[in-house]
Amino acid sequence: MSPKVRVALYWLASCGGCEESQVDAISDKIDIISNLEIVFWPVAMDFKKEDVEKLPDESIDVAVINGGVRLKEHVEMVKLLRRKSKIVIAYGSCASWGGIPGLANLYDINEVLSRVYSEVPTLQEKGVMPRPKSVTNEGMEIELTEVLPMLLPLDAVIDVDYYIPGCPPTPETFLKALETLLSGNLPPRKSVIGASTRALCEECPLNKTKPDKVLIKEIRRIYNTKIDPSKCLLVQGIPCLGPVTRGGCNAKCPRVGSPCIGCYGPLDKHIDYGAKAISFIASILDLNDENEIKKALDNGIPDPAGLVHKFTLPASRLKVNLKRGEHK
Amino acid sequence: MSKHIEVRPEIYTKIRDFMKKLGADDFIKCFNCGTCTVACPIAEVLGIVPFSRKIIRYIMLGLEEDLVNSKEILLCLHCGECSEYCPKGANPAETMHALKTYIIQNYLLKR
Amino acid sequence: MRDKDVRIGVYICHCGTNIAGIVDVEEVARYASSIPGVVVARHYTFMCSETGQNMIKDDIKNLKLNGVVVAACSPALHEVTFKNAVKEAGLNPYLFEMVNIREHCSWTHTDRRLATEKAKDLVRMAIAKVKELEPLEEVKAEVVNSVLVVGSGVAGLSAALTLARAGLTVYIIDKRPVLGGFVTRLVNIAPIGIRGREFVKPMIDELVEMPNVKVLTNAEVISVEGGVGNFKVRIRQRPTYISDLCTLCGYCEKACPIEVPNEYEGKLTMRKAIYLPFKEAYPPKYVIDENACTKCGKCIDACPVKAIDLSVKERYIDLNVGAIIIAVGHEPYEPDKGEFGYGLTRRVITSLQLERLLDEEGPTGGRFIIDGKVPKTIVFISCVGSLIGNKTTNACSRRCCSTITYDTLKILSKNPDSHIYILYRDIRTYGFEEELYWKALENGVVFVKFEEPPKVEVMGDKIMVYVREATINKNIVIPADLVVLFVGMTPSNAGEIVRIFKLSRTADGFIREAHLKLRPAETPTEGIFLAGAAAGPKGVMESVIHGAAAASKALALLLNKKYILREPLVAKVDEELCSGCLICVGMCPFNAISVKYVGERRVATVNPLLCMGCGTCAAACPSGAMEHNGFKDKQILAQVRAFAGVVV
Amino acid sequence: MSSEYEPKVLMFTCNWCSYAAADLAGTSRMKTPHNIRIVRVMCSGRVDPQFIMEAFAQGADGVIVSGCHPGDCHYMEGNYKALRRMLLLRKLLEQLGIEPERLRLEWISASEARKFVEITTDTVEKLRKLGPLKPRLDYVRKIMEEVVK
Amino acid sequence: MEGAKLGEVAVVGGGIAGIQAALDLADTEFKVYLIERSPSIGGRMAQLDKTFPTLDCASCILTPKMAEVLRKDNIELLTLAEVVDVIKNGNKFKLTIKQRPRYVDTNKCTGCGTCVEKCTARGKLGAPDEFNEGLSTRTAVYIPFPQAVPKKAVIDPNICLRLRYKRGCGICEKVCPANAINFNDTERILNLTVDAVIVATGYKFIDPRLPELSIYGYGKYPEVYTNIEFERILDARGPTGGALIKKDGSHPERIVFIQCVGSRHYKINPYCSAYCCMASIKQAILAKEHEPKVDVTILYMDIRAYGKGFQDFYNRAENEYGIRFIKGRTAGITEDPSKKKLIVKYEDVMRGTIETMETDMVVLALGIVPNIPSFLNRLGVVRNGRVITRPGDPISTYVDGIFVIGATLNPTDIPDAVLQGSAAAARVTEHVLRRKTPFEVMRS
């Protein structure tokens, strides 16, 4: 066998789901495990930053980073890993486009912090803000990294070689991606690996139940709608993002009657995933009177950004709510 | 509709028949273009404007007392300039001349 | 973007001083030459002239251009001209973009610097788009050598006759029960002086005998699909209860209990629910007025040849034609009740009713009488419905002045000692028709010009017409026995026609031509032509000519042609990207998108012959697989980025 | 906002109605503001919300989408689809800090040159009061540049 | 019958009507001979700057149609050619055509204009430029106008020194890069046999120097122009480069248009010339656009704004451009030598007052009469100066196969002329395909 592949794994503004999927994927793949040499994996073992700094540049074969860039410390770590690794992979929706934490970009960072540290009802001491430097009771000086004014996807900070989509990417996606990487002929840089090049509908078992004209009279909410799980959700008025989202998860959600929420992200031709989703959902709303349309949209989609930019806001064309920040 | 003067078509026919006998009924061709007024040497001087065109309108609309009281008919020198310039060949000069005889015969002598 | 091998030619037109007067054309040309990919940028006084076009052709050949931008007038005028020039030089005509720096720039701005700045932006945007354009081949479409003529007035008949004589199959339809249109109600067609129906009769007789002509009365188009060379038209024919067995004996009419005003006679007389519109009408049979008929069935029993069947239902006919000629004519303006006294007395009539009174076959047998008496003093008021009145098209109806003078002569021939006054805004007897005006004068008709519309007051059997005779500074009143309102021409339900045939209208409400002077007999939609008063007020003879002109365009399109070339600016599916989500299928009103299988993958596919090229499906396609040739995402985005100043 | 700020307005017009209205405004020599740049599409139904997002991201201060009056569309229903998309897009844009007045959807028929002039002039007036979009975009770009340094 | 020519047609007259007829015929697979008397097609419309009511520039409408005439390979263009005789035999027509010498080989000449620059017969030795209605002069060898089709040079034998004296000069021959000059070109007689003839020879202006029109002082006062001359002044390609200036170069403060000059007059021409009301309104608007401060008045008897969009154009002229419309007629124009102004005395009929207006320029809306070629007289279709056509079909004469369109028939404007052009093409198609006379109506 060729020498072991030296792998570094790291996580930023993450929920740990990506790690779960990585473990699920390779825990029974002895041939793969035996081939890997993990040089840095702080979430699992006690690796320190110095361990990476000691390594010669580009000595790590693959760095798999998940989670969005939220803190100043994240920026330093990913720059370090970039320097030390030949290939950097953005693993999962957060690393690729900012993910759900990216929705914080809709608000000014001070609003976010005050919400977290003073308005949340379960707080005992309200208003205690994180301070960059402080002294513990034992008199030890400790530092806290600063929160960035906006959350960024990985490729906004460092040069990313490949993306593996999903929240989290399914084990199959991760294995397919690994297979592609280890297959010797690497796809062009910056391409999405492990997933399909076409939209989810193609894999979805419910797609064939569509009538020949997909037109809906109203947009319904999943939580208060009794749906027929054997039929395409979109046709029943549920805003399923399957048609505009990349396939590769084998339609995990629609298969169990839950609409696709777009975690596998945009397709290659999209320039703004959210705008494209807006376009197709509005187009099939078969109403012609302006007030009727407004009523249907207000009832069906009270929070458009939440629906169409759940995973992609920081990578969208506008990236943030332009009305927040000092520049009101 | 206070001071609306009633149009009397029979007057127009009466005058037209009279003028026809005198061979001066070309005036019916007039389409009110106003060249005769400008061509007339004395109209502007005497300040009685518009000149022959106004008379022809009176005839066409049958405004009898306007015709009788109009001094233009008597002042007209019959120089013929207006007929010279008239684009319609409506011969206003002849009309004024014939009209003078008509007014004299029917109104002045009777008074 | 094929930046390395991009070789673009940019041409700025002065259009005399129309553009160069405001826009600094040298500066725009200089700026264009500074943009990467542009190998030549010229400016010339008239790019659309032969010299201008040769300039483009020579550059394409000598400099091996693979993209052309022309900044000049609106593409509506000369996009075709320049495309042909590019094509003749051997370059694919779809690697060309036109920039409107005249109507959208020099003609609408005054500040030279800002207008030049805008022209430069528009040129930059066009260059960015041309870099993304791809060569396209025109779509070869089968052509059907038949024409549908909508409307059987003079214009429709003239067009149908010319096309039928040239050998094309012609379908001519009319919403009314008989052919002939508005002109059949006129008593004298200038300059011949014969009745309207006598004028159209020989045309109809020749048409109906031709094997390649089909006539449908009581018929209206309800939907049109497809495009030039291959229209699918659905026609609804309201029930014609009476069959061809009818021998015009008239027993049914006697038996019919229902009486309604006869609109053919200008509502001056009554007619039965079952009636013959006018003498020698075609089709030669009686007609049942659906709104009036109570289906009592008395006529069925009275009919000796059992020609009447009241249970006939309306039927739908589908036609497949290569071209359509819209000749739906006009509707005479119907004054409101009380407008200039109309409807308050029988002594105020419209010019339509006058025509019937002058017709020997009319309600008064040609004797010009009202309520039995010969009207001594008659006052005509012109421009009602055109320039004056409650609802006006604010446009001259062109024919009223000539018709007024012509009718006065006819009245005077019947009642020589009537006194006729014509109250007018302008007497517009244009061209040789001036002699009608002179003849009317010589017959003692008095013309009074008004600036304020005259007022009409009904006083017993006298109608007092008050008007200001400004030329002698007097307010006069004419005690009239009869007032005739000369009603103008208004568009005949143009709203409906425009909706079905997807056309548009000009400010006066009539149907809009492609271009008043360049293409007066065509509409902007390829394959749909326009003739007669539908396009705007017109005389009978002018309608004959307009009908022939429309026919000439249809002949040029269809005569001896097996196929035509259609614009390839249609939608196309990238089957590698299509996920089969079928969102696009629901978007297409023309059913041009259907489903097909690549292996076992279901994908969408577009039929280029049915696709009209609107691009709605491309905007809706969630994965970007559906593309709109000539307006692809990358092409429009290039323009958007160039708009923001991005020089790429 | 400062008076010398000249808003940049991108206008998508449909080929059959609004483009012809713009032409008619030109032939009638009606004066329109200099800030409008027109992109011609065959139907307002072709305007993809992505184009509008790109326009704002590139610094357009306002975007007008104009088509034929409902019922008059040369392609039957293209304008209805534009209406639906713009209504939903405007809700999203509001959440992303773009004032709704910056995106207008108007019906302009081929003979309504005066309406074309009124709408373009009114839009530029409103955008002058709203102020430029560029400073906010520059602020975001500045943050991202600092992070990458 | 795909592509096979349906027949051969002669179109006499290369104005807008003739060009449209030729184009439509070519589209319907006819072989067309377009016969034009002057060196280039385009007719009167080529001299126009703008056209009513849309204010499109005339060349934007005309030049592409002229360019298309060249592009159509089944249209053969015969310029400097006049139809001398037309004889009908069977259902064909034999045409005798006299083609004047161009003295330039059209295959070689590229229209570069070098000869024109070098020609010695210019200025006083030159000739009045027909394109600018004689307001400027042109050289002996010249190109009629920038967008001429064919854009080739032509030599005027009356003023060319070489052609008049058989030797000397010949500079154009020396400088011509394509040596296209050919001094011994001769007149040619051509014979054509065609299936149908469309006559579109346009109109003639009433001579403004007629004694009855002397009251207007045309020719006597320099600042009295006919409307076609005024159009040339407004045109950027015209003598003043589009600047609205008087002959002495100064800007006019006031312009007066006088309608119906040589029209609606019982002695000169009883008919209305149809185009001139709208032409004057258009020129008034253009004058206002060139010089917004100029004061413009139109003296009219009736404004004949009868066509589509005309009334709207008239309203806009009055309300938006502030052009004064006065119903009235002048009895003559005199000059105030001291102030070098022209005096127009007229009656404002609607106010019944005599007005005397000082003006800088006067534009006469000159009447027109059909320009009927002599061969039509011999075919017996002309009676007292008017072409007689079938009552049911105004463009078909009683001689089957002879059609007459445009101003040759009656005074028409451009949209109607274009329509008549297409209609004539349809009539020819009918005539050839069915050999049946159109509209057997009232053969009285």
Structure commentary:
The complex is a heteropentamer of chains A (328), B (111), C (648), D (149) and E (444). Chain B is mainly alpha-helical and 111 residues long. Chain B has a single domain (9-108), classed as Orthogonal Bundle (Fumarate Reductase Iron-sulfur Protein, Chain B, domain 2). Helix content of chain B is 58%, strand content 2%. Chain B is built from eight helices and one strand, in the order E-H-H-H-H-H-H-H-H. In chain B, helix 4 (52-61) packs across helix 8 (92-108). The termini of chain B are far apart. Chain C has 648 residues and is an alpha/beta fold. In chain C, strands 8-7-6-16-27 form a five-stranded parallel β-sheet. In chain C, strands 18-25-19-20-21 form a five-stranded parallel β-sheet. In chain C, a hairpin with a 2-residue loop joins strand 22 (455-459) and strand 23 (462-469). Chain D has one domain: Rossmann fold. Chain D has five helices and four strands. Chain D has helices at residues 18-27, 49-57, 78-95, 113-130, 134-148, and strands at 9-14, 36-41, 62-67, 103-107. Chain D has a four-stranded parallel β-sheet, sandwiched between helices. In chain D, helix 1 (18-27) crosses helix 4. Chain D starts with 8 loop residues before the first strand and ends with a helix. In chain E, helix 1 (16-27) runs parallel beside helix 10 and helix 6 runs parallel beside helix 7 (276-290). Chain E has ten helices and 28 strands. Chain E has three domains: 8-99 and 187-202 and 371-443, 3-Layer(bba) Sandwich (FAD/NAD(P)-binding domain), CATH 3.50.50; 114-175, no CATH class; 207-368, FAD/NAD(P)-binding domain, CATH 3.50.50.60. Classes of the chains: A alpha/beta (328), B mainly alpha (111), C alpha/beta (648), D alpha/beta (149), E alpha/beta (444). Strand 1 of chain B pairs parallel with strand 24 (474-480) of chain C.
User: What is the CATH C-level name of the largest domain in chain A?
Assistant: Alpha Beta
Structural class of chain D, by secondary structure, is alpha/beta
**Mean pLDDT reading of chain D:** 92
CATH T-level fold name of the largest domain in chain A: Rossmann fold
What is the share of helical residues of chain D? Answer: 40-55%
Shape of chain D: globular
Label this structure with key terms.
heteropentamer, A: 328 residues, alpha/beta, Rossmann fold, two-stranded antiparallel sheet, D: 149 residues, 5 helices, 47% helix
Blueprint (SSEs and pairs):
The complex is a heteropentamer of chains A (328), B (111), C (648), D (149) and E (444).
Chain A: E1 5-11, H1 17-26, H2 30-33, E2 36-40, H3 49-54, E3 60-66, E4 69-71, H4 72-84, E5 85-91, H5 92-97, H6 109-119, E6 133-135, E7 141-143, E8 147-152, E9 162-164, H7 171-182, E10 191-192, H8 273-284, H9 290-300, H10 304-308
Parallel strand pairs in A: 1-2, 1-3, 3-5, 5-9, 9-10
Antiparallel strand pairs in A: 4-8, 6-7
Helix pairs in contact in A: 1-7
Chain C: E1 8-13, H1 25-33, E2 38-44, H2 50-63, E3 67-72, H3 75-88, E4 96-100, H4 102-106, H5 112-132, E5 139-142, E6 146-150, H6 154-165, E7 169-173, H7 196-209, E8 213-216, E9 219-227, E10 230-237, H8 251-255, E11 259-261, E12 270-272, E13 274-275, E14 287-288, H9 298-302, E15 315-321, E16 323-326, E17 330-332, E18 348-350, H10 351-357, E19 377-384, H11 400-414, E20 419-424, H12 434-442, E21 446-449, E22 455-459, E23 462-469, E24 474-480, E25 482-487, E26 489-491, H13 494-501, E27 528-530, H14 540-558, E28 563-566, E29 571-573, E30 593-598, E31 601-606, H15 616-620, E32 626-628, H16 633-643
Parallel strand pairs in C: 1-2, 1-3, 3-4, 6-7, 6-16, 7-8, 16-27, 18-25, 19-20, 19-25, 20-21
Antiparallel strand pairs in C: 5-28, 9-10, 10-15, 11-12, 13-14, 17-26, 22-23, 23-24, 29-32, 30-31
Helix pairs in contact in C: 1-5, 2-3, 5-16, 6-7, 6-14, 11-12
Chain E: E1 8-12, H1 16-27, E2 31-35, E3 50-51, E4 56-57, H2 58-71, E5 75-78, E6 81-89, E7 92-99, H3 114-118, E8 127-128, E9 137-138, E10 141-142, E11 154-155, H4 161-165, H5 171-175, E12 188-194, E13 196-199, E14 203-205, E15 224-226, H6 227-234, E16 254-261, H7 276-290, E17 295-300, H8 310-319, E18 324-327, E19 330-336, E20 341-348, E21 353-359, E22 361-366, E23 368-370, H9 374-378, E24 382-383, E25 386-387, E26 389-390, E27 393-397, E28 402-404, H10 414-434
Parallel strand pairs in E: 1-2, 1-13, 2-5, 13-28, 15-22, 16-17, 16-22, 17-18
Antiparallel strand pairs in E: 3-4, 6-7, 7-12, 8-9, 10-11, 14-23, 19-20, 20-21, 24-25, 26-27
Helix pairs in contact in E: 1-2, 1-10, 6-7, 7-8
